[in-house]
Amino acid sequence: MHSPNCALCQPDDSHNVLWRNDKLRVIDAEDPDYPGFTRVAWNDHVCEMTDLEPPDRRHIMDVVWLVEGVMRVELMPGKVNVAQLGNYVPHIHWHVIPRWPLDSRYPDAIWAPMRERSPEQLLAWEVFRERQYGLLTAYHASLRVALNSL
């Protein structure tokens, strides 16, 4: 079932879908500040995890943990944030976000205001972020291989 007013039911993300099956899709969030930020979105319009049957809950979480595991190996973040909010888009979707001490909001949430950084810290983050972008092709390929083995 789909909702005509839901951005995840009427997705404009086909260009950045890394993998999908009949239940869900894994999406490159293409966030310029967080290379590797990945979303796991349920295909049908379901608002809460407890609305899913237990096997479907296990399936989406297996995918979320697989994404986190591949992310840790390929991108080597200092921390991975995993969040399921849905306040603005009440449709089950998980955020899997790599974090590094150099990023502009660390250790705060990615939605927090940027922390004050020196010009040197900002430059270090820019250089590091570009290097991380260079790892995305390998990350996406490894992710697809792992997901195809589910």
Structure write-up:
- It contains three helices and five strands; from the N terminus they run βββαββαα.
- It has a single domain (14-148), classed as 2-Layer Sandwich (HIT family, subunit A), CATH 3.30.428.10.
- The longest helix has 22 residues, at 54-75.
- The chain is globular.
- The chain is α+β, with helices and mostly antiparallel strands.
- It has a five-stranded antiparallel sheet, with helices on one face.
Kindly report the oligomeric state of this protein. single chain
How far do the termini sit from each other?
Answer: 24 Å
How many individual domains? 1
Portion in helices? 25-40%
Quick one: biggest sheet? 5 strands, antiparallel
Spatial arrangement of strands, main beta sheet: 1-2-3-5-4
Radius of gyration computed on alpha carbons: 16 Å
Spans of at least 5 consecutive residues with low confidence: none
CATH homolog superfamily: HIT-like
Overall mean pLDDT stands at: 94
Structural class: alpha+beta
Shape-level CATH architecture:
2-Layer Sandwich
Report the top-level CATH class. Alpha Beta
Q: What fraction of the residues are assigned to beta strands by DSSP?
A: 15-25%
Give helix and strand order, one letter per element, not per position: EEEHEEHH
CATH topology: HIT family, subunit A
Chain-wise SSE layout:
Elements: E1 17-20, E2 24-28, E3 38-42, H1 54-75, E4 79-83, E5 93-99, H2 119-133, H3 136-148
Quick synopsis:
The protein is of the alpha+beta class and 150 residues long. A 5-stranded antiparallel sheet has the order 1-2-3-5-4, with helices on one face.
